[in-house]
Write the structure tokens for this entry.
Amino acid sequence: MRTRVKICGLSRPEDVAAAAQAGADAIGLVFYPPSPRGVSIAQAAGLLRHVPAFVSTVGLFVDPTEAEVRQVLAQCPLDVLQFHGDESPSFCRSFGRPYLKAVRVKPGLDLLQYAENYADAAGLLLDAWVAGVPGGTGQSFDWSLIPADLPLPLILAGGLDPDNVAEAIGRVKPWAVDVSGGVEREKGVKDPARIEAFMRAVATTYVG
Ligand SMILES: O=C(O)c1ccccc1N[C@@H]1O[C@H](COP(=O)(O)O)[C@@H](O)[C@H]1O
């Protein structure tokens, strides 16, 4: 079985097309204004018109207000919400949509307890903990900190790229991988060749 792939931080129609063409299972749009990959609601609505059938769309938020999420959902038909901050379980589930809860992993964090707290999440997305930055840092983390028996689908993120994703899949065996900086030419501008290379590396790494 091939590991699923989400390509995150798209902000141009041609990048959406490149991700879909290369076979990405999901694309992510960043609704976090401080990010260089952030998109406005209008921009996101335009990008979503370029997403073909059977490619899931994910909206990424970092500690948004309820009103902010609802404003986005009113104009953007997102399939899944990704909460990348300190949102509570009740906040995450209050929109009635499947959601991913992102966790920034560092030693001492009890990931099994975290997963239990967000038991109704569609997946737990593990990213690197970097002081002062909520995500999208291009940093990886110590994969040995991931328990083998996480009770939620595991989405591995953090510093993945075409050169290390096969090793990551072999070692962690995640449900899906999530990449942003590793397939970029510059922040917010994806590189179709790197997207292709990433997808090829995933496609040729089968897990039983
Ligand atoms: O992409 C961003 O700018 C971002 C900002 C705030 C929170 C999360 C963000 N991106 C997510 O971070 C991980 C890892 O990214 P990378 O591959 O290491 O660059 C990924 O889930 C992005 O979706």
